[in-house]
Write a structure and sequence with these properties.
The chain has 149 residues and is of the alpha+beta class. It contains 4 helices and 5 strands; from the N terminus they run E-H-H-E-E-E-H-E-H. It is globular.
């Protein structure tokens, strides 16, 4: 059975492996300094990014999720944005992704957020099969302007 919990300092190596798998899936390369920055932000209670890990019965990390909240113009309370979700391919289809989404939704509910939302690529059929079961496809199309670093 998969359980979820907040990331702990001892999770760094397991998180790093899953994080790198996530970046590889999205064909993205980030410098090691960004990994360090992201990890430190996830553990800093003063920083508004949060993280959780899913662990199997043997205590091995099999998935990660990161989220943040932000003010909204359509609600008094902040919205919760689920930014990153990754499940080890070896355990996909076993409820880990659903458990991580539920973890974020529970956290958001406890913190007064009226909704959790996220983005995914259109061709991410495996993930979208789950998302269609646990959330509503809003039909919005995502655009962005890259401004360089």
């Amino acid at each position: 059975m998969t359980t979820t919990r907040a990331l702990l300092p001892d999770d760094r190596d397991a998180w790093q492996t899953l994080w790198r798998g996530y970046l590889e899936f999205y064909e993205t390369e980030l410098p090691a300094a960004q990994d360090d920055l992201t990890w430190n932000r996830l553990l800093d209670p003063q920083f508004p990014i949060h993280g959780a890990v899913a662990v199997d019965d043997d205590g091995h990390a099999v998935g990660i999720v990161h989220w943040l909240t932000h003010a909204a113009t359509w609600a008094a309370e902040p919205y919760c944005y689920l930014e990153d979700l990754f499940v080890d391919p070896a355990v996909r289809g076993g409820g880990t992704g659903r458990a991580l989404i539920a973890h974020v939704a529970g956290w958001a509910r406890e913190h007064g957020s009226p909704k959790v939302y996220w983005l995914t690529q259109q061709h991410n059929a495996t993930a979208r099969t789950l998302y269609d079961k646990v959330a509503t496809d809003t039909g919005y199309v995502h655009y962005q302007i890259g401004l360089g670093a």
